[in-house]
Design brief:
417 residues, alpha/beta, Aspartate Aminotransferase, domain 1, 2 domains, seven-stranded mixed β-sheet, 14 strands, 15% strand, binds pyridoxal-5'-phosphate
Length: 417
C-alpha cells in the first residue's frame, strides 16, 4: 500500500480534529504586537497563551537590539556548524554569561530546546547506562529516550516512593552492565505547573550514585529569588549535574542552552549531533539573547510584576472554587469536567463573547472527560485583565454546569463569522 494513503487513513490523535479545529482551536493566528491584547480573526482579545513570562518579547531594548543586530549581521552569519566555521566570540560570551548565571562552570548553546534535549540524552548515555525519568516528562525527553538502546525506568509523576523503587531496579541493571544512572526531571512541569521534586530527588544521590539532568524550560527566569530557576527555588541548584533551558519562554526568543561541569560541556560540544551537524545560531539570536539575559538579571521588577499577576490570578480563581490542580509556578491550569465538544463550545464562547483567548487541552493530554484551560500570566498583564478573565471563567463554568453546552455538538468553524 502507498505510504501516503496509509497515513491519510489515520491522521493521529490530534490530527483527527484538523478539519473541525484548524484555524480556530488549532493553528489560530494571533496578530499584532505581542502583548496582553492581540488580534484574533480581526478582533482584539485578552491573550493568556504566550510564554512571554517577563514581557521581554516587546521590551523596547530587546526590539532595538534585535533590529540592530539583524541590520548589522543579517540572518546568515555565522555560516556553518560551530565546530567547522560557525564560532564567534559572542556565542562564547553568551555561554559564559549563561553558565555564570545558572552557577555552572560552562554552558553550550543549542539551536532549539527540543532537538537539543534529544541530543543531550543521546550523547550523554550509551547502551550500558540506565535512565530513570518522570512519567510526565516533556516530549523532547521522551523522544531523546526513544534513541536510548539501554534500559530505562519511568517513575510515577513526582512520586518519590515510586522514584526510589525504579532507582533500585536501575541500580541492579547498572551493576550488571557496568553502566551509570541518569535521572531526568523537569523543574516546572509545563502543563500542570507543579515543580519537580528536585530537592527530594537530589537527596537520594549519595545512596544511589546517579547524575541528575533537569529541563527547566518554564523555571528559568521565573523561579527562585534571582530567577535562576527551580533549583534555586528549592536550594539545590548545585545538585543539578546537567541544567537545561530554552530561550523560547522567559527569554522570548529562540534557541536553548545546556550547562554543566567544564569537562562535560566540552564532551557535549564534541559529541552532540544536533550541534555538530547543524548550522550555528544566527548572530541576531545570540546578541538578542545577551540583551534578554541582561534584562532578566538586572530588572527583577519584571519577575516581581509577573508574580503579582500570577498570585492575583491564582488567588482569585481559587477563591471562586476553580480547581488549579497542583500548580506552584506561573503556569495556571484550570480543570473542569467535560468532553471535547463541550470544551470547544466553552472555548468558543470565551473567545467570542468574552474576548478571552487561552489554550485548551483535552484528551489524550488530560484524562477523558477532563478539560484543562491553560493560562500563562505575564509581566505585561494587568490586575484588570485578571478581574475580567475570572468573571468570564465564572460565566462559562455556569454554562458548562447547567448543561448549556451540547455534549455532542462541535462548533462548525467554517460557519463562524
Ligand atoms: C519542558 C520543555 N522542554 C523543552 C521545550 C522545547 O524548547 P524549544 O521550544 O526551544 O524547542 C519546551 C517547549 O518549548 C518545554 O516546555
Amino acid at each position: 500500500m502507498d505510504i501516503f494513503e496509509r497515513r491519510l487513513q489515520n491522521y493521529g490523535p490530534i490530527g483527527k480534529w484538523a478539519e473541525k479545529a484548524d484555524g480556530y482551536f488549532m493553528f489560530p493566528k494571533l496578530e499584532g504586537e505581542i502583548s496582553n491584547r492581540m488580534i484574533f480573526r480581526g478582533k482584539e482579545k485578552l491573550v493568556w497563551s504566550l510564554n512571554n513570562y517577563l514581557g521581554l518579547a516587546n521590551h523596547p531594548e530587546v526590539r532595538q537590539t534585535d533590529a540592530e543586530a539583524t541590520a548589522k549581521y543579517g540572518l546568515a552569519y555565522p555560516m556553518g556548524a560551530r565546530m567547522m566555521s560557525g564560532q564567534t566570540e559572542y556565542h562564547q560570551q553568551l555561554e559564559n554569561e549563561l553558565a555564570a548565571f545558572v552557577q555552572k562552570e560552562a554552558s553550550y548553546l543549542l539551536n532549539f530546546g527540543y532537538q537539543g534535549m534529544v541530543s543531550i540524552i543521546d550523547s550523554l548515555i550509551d547502551r550500558k547506562d540506565v535512565v530513570v525519568y518522570d512519567s510526565e516528562s516533556h516530549a523532547c525527553i521522551i523522544d531523546g529516550l526513544r534513541m536510548h538502546l539501554g534500559k530505562r525506568f519511568v517513575f510515577q509523576h513526582n512520586d518519590i516512593g515510586s522514584f526510589e523503587k525504579q532507582l533500585k531496579h536501575a541500580q541492579h541493571v547498572a551493576e550488571q552492565t557496568g553502566g551509570g544512572i541518569l535521572v531526568i526531571s523537569e523543574g516546572v512541569f509545563g502543563m500542570a505547573g507543579d515543580l519537580g521534586k528536585i530537592d527530594k530527588i537530589a537527596g537520594l544521590k549519595k545512596k544511589y550514585n546517579f547524575r541528575l539532568l533537569v529541563d527547566d524550560a518554564h523555571g528559568f527566569g521565573t523561579m527562585g529569588a534571582t530567577g535562576i530557576g527551580t533549583g534555586e527555588a528549592q536550594g539545590v541548584q548545585d545538585q543539578i549535574d546537567v541544567y537545561f533551558s530554552t530561550f523560547a519562554k522567559s527569554m522570548a526568543g529562540i534557541g536553548a542552552f545546556v550547562a554543566s561541569d567544564k569537562n562535560i560541556i566540552s564532551y557535549l560540544q564534541h559529541n552532540m549531533r544536533s550541534q555538530i551537524y547543524a548550522k550555528s545560531l544566527p548572530m541576531p539570536l545570540v546578541l538578542g539573547s545577551l540583551k534578554r539575559l541582561e534584562l532578566l538579571k538586572t530588572q527583577p521588577q519584571l519577575r516581581e510584576k509577573l508574580w503579582t499577576i500570577v498570585n492575583a490570578l491564582q488567588h482569585k480563581l481559587r477563591e471562586n472554587d476553580f480547581n488549579l490542580g497542583r500548580t506552584e509556578s506561573p503556569v495556571t491550569p484550570v480543570f473542569l469536567n467535560g468532553g471535547i465538544p463541550e470544551a470547544a463550545q466553552l472555548t468558543y464562547e470565551l473567545r467570542e463573547k468574552y474576548n478571552v483567548f487561552c489554550s485548551i487541552v483535552a484528551y489524550p493530554v488530560v484524562p477523558k472527560d477532563v478539560l484543562m484551560l491553560r493560562l500563562i500570566p505575564t509581566a505585561v498583564h494587568t490586575l484588570d485583565d485578571v478581574e475580567e478573565t475570572v468573571n468570564a471563567f465564572i460565566a462559562v463554568r455556569n454554562n458548562l454546569q447547567s448543561g448549556k453546552y451540547d455534549k455532542k455538538f462541535f462548533p462548525d468553524i467554517s460557519m463562524i463569522q
